[in-house]
Design brief:
The chain has helices spanning about 5-25, 45-50, 185-190, 270-285; strands at about 30-35, 55-60, 70-75, 90-100, 110-115, 125-130, 140-150, 155-165, 170-175, 180-185, 220-225, 230-235, 240-250, 260-265. The chain has about 300 residues and is α+β, with helices and mostly antiparallel strands. The chain has two domains: about 1-25 and about 270-300, no CATH class; about 30-270.
Length: about 300
Amino acid sequence: MHIFAFRNARTWFAATLLTLAASIAPAQADTVQITYSPAGQTGPNTAAICAGASVCDYGMENFSAWTGSSTFTSYFDDAGAGTHNTLDGSTFVGTYTAGRNTTTGNGGEWVKQPQNIYGGVTGPYPELYGPKALGGGSGTASYGLALSAAGVPGVNYFGVWISALDAYNNLTIYDGQNVIAQFNAATLQAQLGSCPASAYCGNPTLGEKGADNGELFAYVNVFDLDGYITNVVFSDDGATGFESTNDAVAYINTVHSVGTVLGAQNVGEPGTLAIFGVALIGLGLVRRRQASLGSALPLG
């Protein structure tokens, strides 16, 4: 084939792939906003979250029934009066599961702790130890939360109180197999300011008020503005602990973010990137294969 004809054929092939990609590519990644609540708040501001909504069902988990086992099922209804509302007939179910390389129980990496200066609001709380905190190991300790809802389309809000905040405390948010948001505590630390000057320094709970004033305590909110949250992965890859509790979920039919915005944490759709990658190879613009997001949820 003549070189000119070959180049034309290659260009036509790439253009055809781009057209095909545009017609079959998945929708854009969910629009997600991560915010933090005012200092001292240890749970979601449901009045503000539900404002203007005709349907707003929510619930919260405080881990009072968790025994420290490697799996735990929550219905987000055990945190007391005013912390759950399912008047629209909804049911929320969350399944917590330790990561493949994360042990549980006394001395493990994912453990149940009694309320103390570092965590817990009204009782025990889960703590995830980074591997370097337990003998200098490597890798990532993690546990996952799989979410489902009945009676409403899905979960479009997730909240969590993160206490004694450490830079290696991470959250990865999924809609199906797609990563839609990532949270790293170091970003929040930078925005909240340093201790002891920041209003977020020190444990704000009754009985522990002001304790551990060298660390930050904040309630973090994740709003999916046009999709649903199906999985949350908690992880730590440092020499620190990840203390959290009061995990909250909600469906709001007119969802809007509440709190101080930490940032829109969008992540590209892996399917879209893969399809367009093939088209770019056809144009000769991509010289090496790029790894796409994993198809399975990465529990370390």
